[in-house]
C-alpha cells in the first residue's frame, strides 16, 4: 500500500503494509506529523514486488483543528438493515450522497455499520406503491453471518455503492459498533436462540464480527491481527477525539462490556439492578475524561438512545426499562454519569446517537424527571442510512430522566420491515460549530432537506 500525501505544495510518499489474505486484502497506514486544521490531498495505490501498480485513487481530507475554528460534523447509523440493499435503479444508497453535499469535515457512524443477522433476497415488493425493489446480491449477504468470510463480505457490500465510495473518499470518518455487526441484541456470554445459526455462541460470532469490522473500518488498532491472536484485539474502542478549542468527541462502546439482557418477567426486571451497558472501567474513564476536557462542547456519541422505549417485553437491550420511576435496571449507570457531570461542574454536554431508525431532538431537564440530580442537556438522534424507518413513539419515552420530545420525524404507523428506504424516511444529523463557539444542530432527511435546527449558545466554562 502506497500513499502520496500533499498539502501547501509539499508532498511525501509513504510506504505502507503488504496486503494479504490474512486481513482479506485490507490495509491501513497510520499517518503522523500532520499539521492541524489543514487541507490534505492524497493518492493511494498498491504496488507489487515487480513494480506493477494499481490504478491510483484520489482522496482529500482536513485534519482536526487545535484552535477555535469552524467545523462541520455529520453523524448517522444503521446501514443495510431489514434486507434492503443496493438497488441501482433507485440510485443506490443516496443518503451518503446527501451527507457529502453538506461538505462535512468529519463523519461519525454511530453503529450498525452492517446487519450481519438480516439476509437479503433478490427482489422485494415495495409496500407503498407495489413496485419491485431489486437488491444487488453477493453470496455473503444472502445468509446470516457466521464465518469470518461471511462478516467480511457484509462489510465489503456497502463499498459496491458509488455514493458510499465517493463519500468515504472525501470525508474522514470515525466509527462505533453496536449489535448488528454480530447479531441482534447480543451480549457477552449469550447463547443465541435462533435456529438459523449453527454457531450459537455470541462470543465466537463477536470475535469474528469484530475482526471483520476492524479490518474494514478506520479503527485505531496498531496491529490489525496479532501474530498469536484471533483478531479480537483487546485494545478498547471507546475513545476521546479532540477537535480543537471548542470540541471534544467521546465515542463510547455499549456492546463489549454490558451485562446480560434480561429475559424474565418484566415486572421483576423493573425492580432489579442489572449490569449496565458501559462497565465500571468505561464509566470511570468517561467521567475522568469529561472532567479533564477544556473544550467548549463535549459531545458524547453512543450507539443507543437514553430514553427510547423498549421494543419488546423480553430481551431488553437498551438503557430504558420502560418504567418512569427512579433509575433501575441499567439506568443507574447513566444516572451516575449525569450526577457526576453536575457535581463536577462540567458544562455544555450533548449526546448524539442513532439506532432507532428515526430522527429526534430530546431535551432533558430535572424538573420533568423522576431522577433529578443532573443539569439539563440535549440528546439528538438521527438515522437510518439505509433501513426501514421506525415509529418515534414519543408518548412512550421513559420519563426517568425527563425527556421532552422537541422534534421527531419517523414512520407514522407501527414498526414494519416492509417499508422501503426512501430519501424522505432516512436521516442524518449535523453539528455545525462556529469559530465563536456557537453550535448549530441540524436534522436532515435522506434527501438533504433540513427538518429541524437549533443554535445552542455555550455556557461559560469555569
UniProtKB/TrEMBL annotation:
Transmembrane regions: none
One Pfam family, short name: PhoD
Stretches of the chain forming a coiled coil according to its record: none
Superkingdom assignment: Bacteria
Ranges of residues in domain PhoD-like phosphatase metallophosphatase: 80-405
Protein name: Alkaline phosphatase
Lineage start: Bacteria, Bacillati, Actinomycetota, Actinomycetes, Propionibacteriales
Amino acid at each position: 500500500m502506497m500513499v502520496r500525501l500533499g498539502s501547501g505544495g509539499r508532498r511525501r510518499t509513504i510506504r505502507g503494509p503488504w496486503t494479504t489474505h490474512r486481513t482479506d486484502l485490507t490495509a491501513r497506514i497510520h499517518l503522523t506529523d500532520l499539521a492541524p486544521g489543514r487541507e490534505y490531498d492524497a493518492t493511494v495505490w498498491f504496488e507489487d514486488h515487480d513494480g506493477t501498480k494499481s490504478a491510483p485513487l484520489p482522496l482529500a481530507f482536513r485534519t482536526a483543528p487545535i484552535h477555535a475554528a469552524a467545523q462541520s460534523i455529520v453523524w448517522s447509523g444503521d446501514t443495510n438493515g431489514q434486507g434492503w440493499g443496493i438497488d441501482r435503479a433507485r440510485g443506490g444508497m443516496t443518503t451518503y450522497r446527501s451527507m457529502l453535499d453538506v461538505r462535512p469535515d468529519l463523519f461519525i457512524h454511530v453503529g450498525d455499520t452492517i446487519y450481519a443477522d438480516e439476509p437479503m433476497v433478490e427482489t422485494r415488493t415495495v409496500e407503498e406503491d407495489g413496485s419491485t425493489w431489486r437488491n444487488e446480491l453477493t453470496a455473503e449477504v444472502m445468509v446470516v453471518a457466521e464465518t469470518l468470510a461471511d462478516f467480511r463480505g457484509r462489510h465489503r457490500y456497502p463499498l459496491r455503492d458509488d455514493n458510499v465510495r465517493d463519500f468515504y473518499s472525501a470525508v474522514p470518518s470515525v466509527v462505533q459498533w453496536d449489535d448488528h455487526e454480530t447479531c441482534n441484541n447480543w451480549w457477552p456470554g449469550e447463547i443465541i436462540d435462533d435456529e438459523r445459526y449453527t454457531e450459537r455462541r455470541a462470543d465466537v460470532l463477536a470475535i469474528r464480527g469484530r475482526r471483520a469490522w476492524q479490518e474494514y473500518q478506520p479503527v485505531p488498532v496498531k496491529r490489525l491481527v496479532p501474530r498469536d491472536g484471533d483478531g479480537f484485539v483487546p485494545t478498547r474502542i471507546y475513545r476521546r477525539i479532540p477537535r480543537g478549542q471548542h470540541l471534544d468527541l467521546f465515542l463510547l462502546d455499549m456492546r463489549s462490556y454490558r451485562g446480560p439482557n434480561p429475559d424474565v418477567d418484566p415486572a421483576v426486571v423493573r425492580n432489579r439492578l442489572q449490569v449496565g451497558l458501559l462497565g465500571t472501567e468505561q464509566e470511570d474513564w468517561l467521567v475522568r475524561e469529561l472532567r479533564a476536557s477544556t473544550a467548549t462542547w463535549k459531545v458524547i456519541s453512543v450507539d443507543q438512545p437514553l430514553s427510547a422505549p423498549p421494543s419488546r417485553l423480553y430481551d431488553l437491550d437498551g438503557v430504558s426499562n420502560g418504567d418512569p420511576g427512579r433509575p433501575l435496571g441499567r439506568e443507574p449507570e447513566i444516572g451516575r454519569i449525569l450526577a457526576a457531570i453536575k457535581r463536577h461542574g462540567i458544562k455544555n454536554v450533548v449526546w448524539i446517537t442513532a439506532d432507532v431508525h428515526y430522527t429526534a431532538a430530546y431535551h432533558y431537564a430535572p424538573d420533568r424527571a423522576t431522577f433529578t440530580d443532573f443539569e439539563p442537556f440535549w440528546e439528538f438522534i438521527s438515522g437510518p442510512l439505509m433501513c426501514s424507518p421506525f415509529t418515534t413513539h414519543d408518548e412512550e419515552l421513559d420519563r426517568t430522566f425527563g425527556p421532552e420530545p422537541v422534534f421527531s420525524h419517523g414512520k407514522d404507523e407501527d414498526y414494519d420491515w416492509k417499508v422501503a428506504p426512501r430519501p424522505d424516511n432516512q436521516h442524518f444529523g449535523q453539528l455545525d460549530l462556529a469559530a465563536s463557539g456557537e453550535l448549530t444542530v441540524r436534522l436532515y432527511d435522506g434527501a438533504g432537506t433540513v427538518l429541524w435546527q437549533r443554535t445552542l449558545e455555550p455556557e461559560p466554562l469555569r
